[in-house]
Amino acid sequence: MRQNDSGFDTRLVHAGAHEDPLHSVVTPIYQTSTFGFANAQEGADCFAGKADGYIYTRLGNPTTRSLERCVADLEEGCDAVATSSGMGAVNTVYMALLDQGSHVVSTASVYGPSRGLMETHYSRFGVASTYVDTSDLSALEAAFRPETRLLYVESPSNPCMQVTDLEAAARIAHAHGALLVVDNTFASPFLQKPLRFGADVVLHSVTKFINGHADVVGGIVVAREPGILKRLRSMMIATGCNMDPHQAFLVHRGVKTLSLRIERAQLSALQIASWLEARPEVAWVRYIGLPSHPQHELARRQMSGFGSMIGFELVGGLEAGRRLMDRVELAVLAVSLGGVETLIEHPASMTHAGIPREEREKAGITDGLVRYSVGIENVEDLIRDLQQALAG
Ligand SMILES: *Cc1c(COP(=O)(O)O)cnc(C)c1O
């Protein structure tokens, strides 16, 4: 899908551009459910796959295709399938690549609903799953069974920022005849390109960094090979979780500034994480850009930057964390992440509340953990906000 050797920022702006007969600079919104055929033969040829052409928006739409081509290019995959939400992308991957009796090995601190979908629903159809700290390669390998079909890794993981060695994970998965799927939502293709390390499939909740403006929910799946992509697309079409053209237009607009947004936010994040680490009220900070992070060196090798997600716990634990969340004035108390606005949330009672406490703790999600997604505001204002909230 990559047209040329242009740099990443150039591709952010231009990849996937639609060739419009009126030369519109931006891909227009094709707000239509269906497309007319010139004649019956053309319609039959489109359905038979003998002719190119759009048929019906659930099957494909030019605005959505433009975004798919763009993200496939950024991730260096063969092509992509956009979905109505990040969970639509997760479900498309599960349903397309698993069978009855299959087994999945997954990151213990994976996005809560990705685990919930597997444990609550796929288990009803005979799919088994095991959750391990995938940053521990021997635990990862020990979890494999003869029927393991997928190794599903989130790295850095949510909300503890554990980093998994993707190259080793790919090697282990392939040695066991399984595919490696990476949820790259937290890193985005600007910071990490999992296909380069041997992953077979990469997925995103584009709701987060890729769109970046907290105004759209959406997902996307990128595959290394056309055979896998075909299975993913046919599942997306069958389950009807297509991305709407208007959604696709907004996400494509948002992605163009991905580098600028992350470069700015990660500069601030390093400053804020260092500031937090030095505060007496703070028990510990998890930010992959800090040398104190257990996988800092691995992150340095595998990623081109450290991103803008910080996890920390106050000395006063849960109560102190709650007080902080109630007292911040600039950071918005809300779930989600990766937008231009700084957000703060409490994983144990919000994003990860669906996971039993014992399992949560095993995944490093303590009751006092606070998650902070740094936006692009002035860093001095963010620090002042945290300072007044801690002092209060
Ligand atoms: C938000 C998120 C999802 C789910 O995406 P939605 O767009 O909310 O459906 C999946 N994985 C990760 C890591 C996420 O942060």
Task: Describe the structure concisely for a colleague.
The protein has 392 residues and is α/β, with parallel strands linked by helices. Helices cover 39% and strands 15% of the residues.
Walkthrough of the structure:
The structure is a single chain. By secondary structure, this protein is α/β, with parallel strands linked by helices. It folds into two domains: 253 residues, 3-Layer(aba) Sandwich (Aspartate Aminotransferase, domain 2); 134 residues, Alpha-Beta Complex (Aspartate Aminotransferase, domain 1). The strands form two sheets. It has a seven-stranded mixed sheet with strand order 1-7-6-5-4-2-3, sandwiched between helices. It starts with 7 loop residues before the first helix and ends with a helix. The site of pyridoxal-5'-phosphate has 16 residues, from helix 4.
Please give a handful of descriptors for the protein shown:
globular; 2 domains; binds pyridoxal-5'-phosphate; alpha/beta; Aspartate Aminotransferase, domain 1; single chain; 392 residues; 7-stranded mixed sheet; 5-stranded mixed sheet; Aspartate Aminotransferase, domain 2; 12 strands
Q: How many H/I helices?
A: 15
Radius of gyration: 21 Å
- Rounded mean pLDDT score: 95
How many domains in all? Answer: 2
| Succession of helices and strands | HHHEHEHEHEHEHEEHHHEHEHEEHEH
N- and C-termini, Cα separation = 53 Å
> Could you say which structural class the secondary elements and strand pairing correspond to?
alpha/beta
Fourth-level CATH superfamily of the largest domain = Type I PLP-dependent aspartate aminotransferase-like (Major domain)
Major sheet details: 7 strands, mixed
The unreliable regions are none
Distinct bound molecules? pyridoxal-5'-phosphate
User: In CATH's first tier, which class of the largest domain applies?
Assistant: Alpha Beta
Order of strands, main sheet, comes to 1-7-6-5-4-2-3
| Helical proportion, percent range | 25-40%
